[in-house]
Design a protein that fits this description.
Number of strands: 0
Strand content: under 5%
Distance between the termini: 30 Å
Helix content: over 70%
Radius of gyration: 17 Å
């Protein structure tokens, strides 16, 4: 059951990225097919690099370090997961500060990054591997990068969808947390 707990919110997130895309017309009608294929490949490679980097730093290093710091508390897994996911969310503020993204869209990214980060931290704790979080992270980022070539997605009027995504990932992370042994993080590092 646990793979579905993670895969369903990822699929919903990809669908949301497609439906809120400003780029569908440009991708499938205006760009020559070679450029569409090139855009898909480049965005996939970028998403893989981002997924590998962020998951290695935030789950592989930060989560493990936090699990070491919180090892003597009653909830080391919970505190480590929440700590690394909040940091993951805060990192996304750079999209507005450095990248020039709109503040509303950036806040949306921060909130879903926290929920996704917690889910990925619990997936990492449950499996002991970064492969799953890296692949799922790359799929989400690819759908965002590729389907939003023309800029930030149109999120006006779909706030209920954003809330649903955040809730789905929060539930997914919670279910993974409830089914993961707290002592399993001892084998992840430090």
């Amino acid at each position: 059951m646990f793979p579905l707990v993670v895969i369903i919110p990822v699929v919903v997130m990809v669908i949301l990225n497609i439906f809120t895309s400003k780029s569908l017309n440009a991708i499938f009608k205006e760009l020559p097919s070679g450029q569409t294929i090139l855009a898909a490949i480049i965005s996939l490679l970028a998403a893989l690099v981002i997924g590998i980097f962020e998951e290695t730093v935030l789950r592989g290093i930060l989560f493990n370090y936090l699990s070491f710091l919180f090892r003597k508390t009653n909830y080391p897994l919970l505190f480590s997961g929440l700590g690394s996911s909040f940091f993951f969310g805060i990192v996304h503020l750079s999209n507005a500060i450095i990248g020039g993204a709109k503040l509303g869209y950036t806040l949306y990214q921060v909130l879903y990054a926290i929920a996704i980060g917690f889910t990925f931290a619990m997936l990492y704790a449950k499996t002991g591997s970064l492969i799953g979080p890296i692949i799922l992270h790359a799929i989400i980022d690819w759908s965002d990068l590729f389907f939003n070539l023309a800029g930030e997605p149109s999120i006006s009027g779909i706030n209920w969808s954003i809330i649903i995504i955040i809730i789905m990932f929060a539930i997914s992370g919670y279910l993974l947390y409830r089914t993961t042994q707290a002592d399993s993080i001892k084998s992840l590092g430090f």
